[in-house]
C-alpha cells in the first residue's frame, strides 16, 4: 500500500486515474507505468476474478511509479470487501450507495474490530503473516473508501452519505445516474448536469473529494471547471478502440495519397 491517492484526495491535488476492465496483469502494469496516480480495476461489470485482481495488483506494484490500486467491487458486500482487502490493494469503490446507513456498513466492513467487523486473517496484504500484527494494528482508516452516487435515492441522500466518517470520496457514476434520470446517452442533459453539481456540492460541504469518469479526454476541462477533485480519464477498451480507429484513418489517408489502389476498391483476394 502506498496511500498516495488517499493523501492526494485529502490535499485536493487533482489525482488522475485510468479504468481497467480487461483482466490481465500486463494491462495493469503498462497502465501503472504511465503518468497516472491510480488504476481502477472494475469487478462489477466484468468477469475479473479475485485471483486475477491479485495478479493485476502485482502488475501495478511492479511498475516503477508509485501507483495505487483501487478495486470497484460488485456490491456493498462485507464478504467480498474483506477478500479484496486481503489481497493488498489500496482502496475500493462501491457502487449504488443510497443512504448513510449503507455508507456506515461500508466503513464498518473496511475496519477491524473494535471499530468494525472485518475478519482478521493473514494474507498478501500482511505479507503472508510476516507483518500480521503490524498490519492489523495500522490497517483501519488506511484504505481509500469511495462511495458511488448513481441513483435518485443516492442523490436525495447524498448530504448524509458524504457526512459519514470514513468515506473518503464520492464518485458520480455517469451512466447509471443518467439512466436513473431518464437521460441515458444524453451527456449534456440538464438533469445530469444538475445531479453532478449536486454531488460535488455535497462532497465539498462535507470536506471530501468528488470524482467521476470521462471516457473522452475532451470533457476533462469541463469536469475540472465544474468542481470535480479527481477524475478517471479513459478506460482500456475505449482507448484501444480509439487508437485502432485513429490508426486506420491514418493508414487509409496514406494509401489514398500514395497507394496504387484505394482501400475501398480492394477485394479480399487482393489483400
Describe this structure in words.
This protein is α/β, with parallel strands linked by helices and 271 residues long. The mean pLDDT is 95. The protein has one domain (4-235): TIM Barrel (Alpha-Beta Barrel), CATH 3.20.20.60. The chain is built from 12 helices and 8 strands.
Show unreliable segments.
Answer: none
Number of domains: 1
Helix and strand string, N-terminal first?
Answer: HEHEHEHEHHEHHEHHEHEH
Walk across the major sheet and give the strand order.
1-2-3-4-5-6-7-8
| Average pLDDT level | 95
Please identify which CATH superfamily we are dealing with: Phosphoenolpyruvate-binding domains
Largest sheet: 8 strands, parallel, barrel
DSSP strand (E) fraction? Answer: 15-25%
Q: How many helices in DSSP terms?
A: 12
Q: What structural class do the secondary elements suggest? A: alpha/beta
Strands, count? 8
CATH fold annotation = TIM Barrel
Amino acid at each position: 500500500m502506498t496511500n498516495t491517492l488517499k493523501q492526494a484526495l485529502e490535499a485536493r491535488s487533482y489525482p488522475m486515474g485510468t479504468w481497467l476492465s480487461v483482466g490481465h496483469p500486463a494491462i495493469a502494469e503498462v497502465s501503472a507505468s504511465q503518468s497516472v496516480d491510480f488504476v481502477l480495476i472494475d469487478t462489477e461489470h466484468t468477469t475479473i476474478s479475485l485471483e486475477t485482481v491479485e495478479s493485476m495488483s502485482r502488475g501495478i506494484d511492479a511498475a516503477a511509479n508509485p501507483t495505487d490500486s483501487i478495486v470497484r467491487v460488485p456490491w456493498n458486500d462485507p464478504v467480498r470487501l474483506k477478500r479484496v482487502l486481503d489481497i493488498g490493494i489500496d482502496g475500493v469503490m462501491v457502487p449504488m450507495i443510497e443512504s448513510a446507513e449503507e455508507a456506515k456498513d461500508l466503513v464498518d466492513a473496511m475496519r477491524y474490530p473494535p471499530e468494525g467487523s472485518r475478519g482478521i486473517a493473514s494474507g498478501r496484504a500482511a505479507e503472508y503473516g510476516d507483518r500480521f500484527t503490524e498490519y492489523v494494528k495500522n490497517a483501519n482508516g488506511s484504505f481509500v473508501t469511495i462511495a458511488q452516487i448513481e441513483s435518485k435515492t443516492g442523490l436525495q441522500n447524498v448530504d448524509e452519505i458524504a457526512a459519514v466518517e470514513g468515506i473518503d470520496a464520492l464518485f458520480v457514476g455517469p451512466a447509471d445516474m443518467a439512466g436513473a434520470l431518464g437521460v441515458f446517452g444524453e451527456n449534456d442533459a440538464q438533469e445530469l448536469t444538475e445531479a453532478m453539481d449536486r454531488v460535488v456540492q455535497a462532497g465539498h460541504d462535507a470536506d471530501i473529494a468528488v470524482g467521476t469518469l470521462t471516457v473522452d479526454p475532451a470533457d476533462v476541462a469541463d469536469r475540472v471547471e465544474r468542481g470535480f477533485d479527481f477524475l478517471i480519464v479513459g478506460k482500456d477498451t475505449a482507448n484501444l478502440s480509439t487508437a485502432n480507429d485513429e490508426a486506420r484513418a491514418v493508414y487509409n489517408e496514406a494509401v489514398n495519397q500514395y497507394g496504387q489502389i484505394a482501400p475501398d476498391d480492394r477485394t479480399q483476394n487482393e489483400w
